[in-house]
Every structure is written in C-alpha cells, then in structure tokens.
UniProtKB/TrEMBL annotation:
Provenance organism: Algimonas ampicilliniresistens
The organism's taxonomic lineage, starting at the top: Bacteria, Pseudomonadati, Pseudomonadota, Alphaproteobacteria, Maricaulales
Gene3D superfamilies associated with the record: 3.30.70.100
Name used for this protein in its record: DUF1330 domain-containing protein
SUPFAM superfamilies named in the record: Dimeric alpha+beta barrel
C-alpha cells in the first residue's frame, strides 16, 4: 500500500471531490499533517513548521467565524502519538477532523480571497498532508 504526501490537490482530485459527494450531505475531512522542522517563509522568518501551521489554523477559524459559515467545526485535533496497528507513525505529526455541512461549504471555505490572504502560513509550515474526504453514511 502506497500513499503520497502532498501540499495541494490536483485538478482531477478537485473535480472528483465536487462530483462524488451528495449535495447537501455533511462531509468530514480527515487531515493527516506532516510539519516542516523549520518554516519556509519567503521573508526568511523562521519558526517551527507546527507554529507556522498554527497561524494558518487560527486564521482559518477566524475566517469561518467572520464569514458566518455555520455548521463548520473541528471535531478533533491532536498530535500523533503512535500507531497501534500498522507502521508509519513518524510520517505524521498531527491529525484533525473537520466537519462541513456539505461539499460546497468546504470548497467555498478554501476558495475565497480571505483564505488566499493567509494560505502562505500553511505552505510555510507543512511538509505535506493527506486530506481524506469522508461521508457521514456510517460504516457500522
């Protein structure tokens, strides 16, 4: 099994995401995050990758509040401790699950001018991530 750690979705992944999930249905985004040891800001500022990403997360939360995007919530966020089954815990630093009311809300949240104004913190801090879209159909 192979996974690919990346920073941005491909055009094909965006199209597939928008085409695949039922309109109006809640969607959960599972984030597996790998931080850079040291940020890579264009102005040369150096903080940890985790601190740069925390700046992004704080700005993202403020944007959601300011835009009044109801129903968006961080369900869980925490540091990766260890794997109980499988291997590769060292590949990830943190995990987050964010719930959106629907795929359009998720896409709108990351496709506006305000988001673009602080997105550079994400790029400065992240080595890469997996972003996994999950529906709310329930498996069990």
């Amino acid at each position: 099994m192979t996974t690919k750690n990346a920073l941005e979705p491909t055009s094909e992944q965006i199209r597939d995401f928008l085409d695949s999930h039922e309109d109006g249905a809640p969607i959960y985004m599972l984030n597996l995050l790998k931080f850079k040891k040291t940020s890579t800001y264009k102005d040369g500022e150096q903080v940890s990758g985790a601190e740069a990403y925390a700046r992004y997360a704080k700005a993202f939360g403020a944007m959601l509040r300011d835009l009044g995007l109801d129903g968006v919530e961080t369900v869980f966020g925490g540091k990766v401790d260890r794997f109980l089954i499988g291997a590769g815990a060292e590949e990830w630093d943190a995990v987050a699950i964010v719930r959106y009311p629907d795929k359009k809300s998720m896409f709108d949240a990351v496709s506006n001018e305000t988001y673009r104004s602080f997105h550079f913190h994400r790029k400065a801090g992240l080595e890469g991530q997996l972003l996994i879209a999950c529906d709310s159909s329930g498996v069990f």
